[in-house]
Amino acid sequence: MLTTEQELRQKLRKIAALSTATSAEERDAAAAALNRVRGTLKAAEKTERTVEMDFRLPDRWSCRLFLALCRHYEFKPFRYPRQRHSTVVLRAPETFTKETLWPEYLEISRALEDYLNDATERIIREEVFGDAAEAEERTENPPTNPQVIGLLLRAES
């Protein structure tokens, strides 16, 4: 369970194989790992055709992460006019995208989501109210009276 931003940063560095090195050997190893991945990408670009893929990401934070990861691998993500801001179009070798880029995105995304969930719960417990639990689930049927439903809808807006 991640508790600090520094721990999250360390985990992200490990996931991306770019951990902050304390020695020249570690820096060289991290650079070599990145170069191997980029070499795999270059080989894939030579042996398979580049395909255009649309990625529809759930929110702007996920989109920003995916864009950064694409740029990390020197891709140029884009979108067409009138596409949502959560859509990213990428031209890349399909196997690299499916076997390297997307799994790495999912792993980093999970780590960030865990961190943000932990931080949100901690702040709510410490600063708003000690109980940050979900709403209870009831077994009874919801009201069918239109007046009650109308009140509920107005309260949500």
Name some characteristics of this structure.
157 residues, two-stranded antiparallel sheet, 5 helices
Task: Describe what you observe in this structure.
This protein has 157 residues and is mainly α. Helices cover 60% and strands 9% of the residues. The protein has five helices and two strands, in the order H-H-E-H-E-H-H. The protein has helices spanning 5-15, 24-47, 60-72, 94-128, 146-156, and strands at residues 50-56, 87-93. Helix 3 (60-72) crosses helix 4. The protein is flat. The relative contact order is 0.11. The model has no long low-confidence stretch (mean pLDDT 78).
Topology of this protein?
Blueprint: H1 5-15, H2 24-47, E1 50-56, H3 60-72, E2 87-93, H4 94-128, H5 146-156
Antiparallel strand pairs: 1-2
Helix pairs in contact: 1-4, 3-4
Count of alpha/pi helices: 5
State the helical fraction: 55-70%
Sheet of most strands: 2 strands, antiparallel
Percent strand: 5-15%
Number of domains: 1
Residue-averaged pLDDT = 78
> How large, in whole angstroms, is the Cα Rg?
22 Å
Oligomer: single chain
The dominant shape is flat
What is the element string, with H for helices and E for strands? HHEHEHH
Termini, distance in Å?
A: 35 Å
